[in-house]
Fold this sequence. Notes:
By secondary structure, the protein is of the alpha/beta class. The chain has 9 helices and 5 strands; from the N terminus they run βββαβααααβαααα. It comes from Qipengyuania citrea.
Amino acid sequence: MRSFRHFLAIDWSGAKGPVQKGIALALADAGGGPPVLVERGRGWSRGDVLALLREDLPDDTLVGMDLGIALPFADCGAYFPRRDVLLPDAPSLWALIDDICAGDPNLGAQSFVDHPGFAPYFRNGRDTGVHFGCDGAAHGRGRFRVTEQAQAEMGCKPYSNFNLVGAAQVGKSSLTGMRVLHRLRGHLPVWPVDPDPGHGSLVVEIYTSLAALESGRSAAKAKMRSFEDLNSALAGLGSPPVAGRGAIEDHSSDALLTAAWLRRVASDRTRWAPARLTRDIARTEGWTFGAL
């Protein structure tokens, strides 16, 4: 089993604007010690994170990004059924989104969800697209990837990446993240869309609620808004506590806990070989690291 020297957890955001308050980065060292926030004075933009991943990433880092690295495919046999052009894999999806959104500032993805060819697949707060469901029904919770079904069976409450509504929606953050993944091609492999090369750094999809569950917290209490709660969860993962008292912003606590979790579980072979992860699913939908 390969080893990593560093573990970087990125709590992501699909919000508008040049700097996203919802982005937080935390780093844990394989040698031990508490995880630490990677600070940036004015806050992080998506472009800043892309630059770090391409140019300043420590060697042999396992990078966890809290976003969906693809859209559902297996349920309907396509990302966008009923369209003439079928995308064969996740990298082609990333490239399409980045191309359509080339004019969107700050690596945004509004042009994609507004595009007349793709808007019918999303729920956007004004309308539920006629293709939001796999069978064409404009209701329900939307479509899910196989890995999201596995998350639900583990006690999490995943949302469809086609849902753009509500505080817990992940659609916008996932789409903006796919633009970043496209721009990382040739720089960093993304597991399991790309095979693990066995050396160097690697990107995986994470879901911070999985880290919270394994720390002893429930899905309903996955968010930690005090240092006391965070350090209790870190202790559940065998990690030293972080310094601080009182309140902590939950994006920071999510990143800190998940960096420690990555360090704890990355050497577990079962995490890299979930039973339902087939070659086709890896190529089209990807997987959430830690979903079994």
